[in-house]
Structures are given as C-alpha cells and as structure tokens.
Design goal:
Shape: globular
Strand content: 5-15%
Radius of gyration: 24 Å
Order of helices and strands: HHHHHEEEHEHHEEHEEHHHEHEHHEHH
Number of helices: 17
Strand order of the largest sheet: 1-2-3-4-5-7-9
Largest sheet: 7 strands, mixed
Number of strands: 11
Length: about 375
C-alpha cells in the first residue's frame, strides 16, 4: 500500500542505522548478517586474500567498502569475524597496518610499509592553514627519518580541488588583508619546503588537481598520475592568479623556451585543464609516470626509483611580446590585466625565485581587493 512519507530521518552511519531498533534497522541487520556469513563461508574457495575480495567488489559494484572491510565498521558483537580476518584493518591502503605519526583536523602523516604518507582529510582535499602547517612538519620528519614523503589522496576521489575558497571569501569580504597575506605566505613556504626538501616528494594524483592541487604537483620531485587526471592552474575562474608558486614555477620551468612558456601562460589565461595524465606530463611535469589503474598508483609510487633533480631557482627569459604571441580578441578585462602582468615579468629578463614569489603575491593581493573577485568567489562557495 502506498504511503506518502512526510519526514525522513536518514542515519549518517551504519552504526546509527542499526542502533535505531526500528523495522529498517531489523531489515538491514538481517540482510548484512546473511551477506557477511555468505562472504566468510566462500572465502577459502574464492581467495585467501581479503584485499583481493574487497578490491573486486569495490571495482565491480562501485561499493565504498568491500564486504570484509565493511565488517570492521560494524558494532562490536554484530558478527563473529574469523581470527584470520581480525588482523586486517580498513586503513591505507586496504588492510595494511598503519600508524599515525602526526595529525590535525585537516591532514595526517601516516607510516605505511615503513614509508611516510601525507593524507589530506578536508572536503575534496582542499588546502587550508592546517594542511600547510602539517605538510611542512611532515617534510621535516621525513627528512630526519631519511624517508621519502608520499602525498596520497586516500580519503578522496580527488588529489586536491585547490584552496579552501571559503577562507578566501571570508578574509576578502571582511577585508582582513593581513590574514589573507599570511595564508598566501604560508602556502608559498609549504611549496618551497616541498621543492627544496632533502628527501624525495612523490605525489600520487588522480581525479582533480586544480589550482593549489596542481601547484603541489609542480613542486613534487615525481608525480605518478592516473590516466584520467584533470589538472590545471584555473585560478582566473575566481578572479585570481596562482598564488602558491604556480606562476613562479611556470616561469622557472618554461622561461627559456618561448613556445612552451607562451603555451603554459595561455593555459592559465584560458583556465585550461588537462584531460589525461599524458597531457599533464607533456604540459606541466616532465618527471611524471602514468598509471591506468588508480587502485595501484600508491604501489607504483612506493616502488618508483626517484632521482633528486637540480632545482631551478632563476631564469633568463628571452624577449616575447605576449600580445602578439597570444590571440586576445575574445579576452575580457581580467585576462588582459593578467597578460600585462605576465608581460611585466618577461620584460624583467633575468628573474629569480624570490622575486617571482614576491610579484606573484603582490598581484594576488591586488586582485583579491577587486569587486570582480568577490563576485566570482561567491559563485563557488
């Protein structure tokens, strides 16, 4: 019989669902017990490796958790899990025992397979002060321990969607320029810490790596990228420019090659994003490995041989007239403004890292104060 439901109370976790003691809790309780019993009884004939079973179920049915992994989320006493499974934990990656070394509300440094892995825990892995502070600390700890540092989006389908725009919007609308400048400086320092670290920084990238997320990749020693990686410096979409070393790295990496520099600056002006890992490697990062299966990206990164490269800290830029090299017929006022800013840097000729960062921050703060930036930011929060 059809009944119209006027109010729905949806539990926010399986534990809450089962604790409700209503008809829905009873239904799911009985269903899950049958499902778990069935899975456990078939274990020996299917596979002795719980990880293989969960991986097959996650990939084949688009589940968030595999059946064995889901058991670890059940209330105590819900089901008798065989001793052979009790040592397996839902962790990073599946079932490998891990140890949290340091953490805060936004990120954590995990020790996994005796390696250091940095994990962002914010929504869509957005970047805020806590992320940067823990990242700087994690680099130092990895250096002291003589270990590589791996940046891996364990809790998200995206590497990083970039800056936490709510923080920008809050500081800009409140005209708290001191807090905004402090945030930009912290981000620049974090990126420099990655770039000039004594240890190797390896980023495992899939999903989105936009804005600040792309800047993390630019400052890494090696990127292991999923084939469908969607990356780019797209800050113009909110009326800004890359402010955490993105502009700086583009000029340092591409400055001596006029064609590549023009293309890279065009990508910023057009908010272009890559549609593949191959394109990212071609346009942004020579030291990049491509992986077709994001489930195995971390394993590939852990097994990768990384050679520390010489860091470029200054460049002598050849003469380029961007207004002639880039078609500007359909450019708006903001794009023309940024193109003129890029031309100013080119006209300096020889520039170093410190100068580029200072110019980048100055322009970022100038754009932040414009009404256009506020209007654009409001559309994204």
């Amino acid at each position: 019989e059809y009944k119209e439901i006027t109010e729905i109370n949806i539990p926010n976790s399986i534990t809450n669902l089962l604790d409700n003691n209503d008809e829905y809790a009873e239904f799911f309780h009985d269903t899950l017990k049958i499902f778990f019993d069935y899975t456990i009884n078939l274990m020996p004939s299917i596979s002795n490796n719980p990880n293989d079973i969960d991986k097959a179920m996650r990939l084949g049915y688009s589940l968030k958790y595999g059946p064995i992994e889901l058991m670890t989320h059940m209330p105590d006493g819900f089901i008798n899990i065989p001793k052979s499974l009790t040592s397996h934990k839902a962790a990073l990656p599946r079932y490998e025992l891990t140890k949290t070394l340091i953490s805060n509300d936004s990120a954590e440094l995990i020790q996994h397979k005796k390696q250091h892995i940095f994990v962002i825990k914010t929504k869509m892995n957005t970047l805020n002060q806590q992320v940067f502070e823990l990242l700087i600390d994690s680099v130092k700890r990895s250096e002291d321990a003589g270990k590589n540092l791996y940046i891996y989006p364990a809790n998200s389908v995206h590497f990083s969607a970039g800056a936490d725009l709510k923080l920008f919007y809050k500081n800009i609308t409140e005209q708290n320029w001191k807090a905004l400048e402090k945030f930009i400086t912290l981000g620049q320092n974090a990126m420099l810490t990655l770039k000039h670290s004594k240890t190797n920084i390896i980023s495992c990238a899939y999903g989105l790596a936009l804005g600040g997320g792309c800047e993390l990749l630019l400052h890494s020693d090696l990127v292991v990228a999923h084939q469908n990686l969607n990356a780019g410096l797209v800050e113009l979409g909110v009326g800004l420019i890359p402010g955490w070393g993105g502009v700086k790295e583009i000029f340092l990496l591409e400055g001596i090659n006029p064609d590549r520099l023009v293309q890279s600056l065009s990508n910023i002006l057009m908010q272009n994003k890559t549609s593949s890992g191959d394109y990212f490697a071609m346009q942004y990062k020579d030291n990049c490995q491509i992986n077709m299966n994001k489930e195995s990206i971390l394993d590939q990164a852990l097994n990768a041989s990384v050679k520390k490269q010489t860091k470029i800290t200054n460049v002598n830029i050849p003469k380029i007239d961007l207004s002639q090299a880039i078609t500007t017929n359909n450019f708006d006022e903001l794009q023309i403004n940024i193109l003129e800013f890029f031309q100013k840097i080119i006209d300096l000729g020889e520039v170093d890292e410190k100068t580029l960062l200072a110019l980048e921050k100055e322009k970022f703060l100038e754009l932040s104060a414009s009404p256009l930036c506020i209007r654009k930011l409001k559309l994204f929060i």
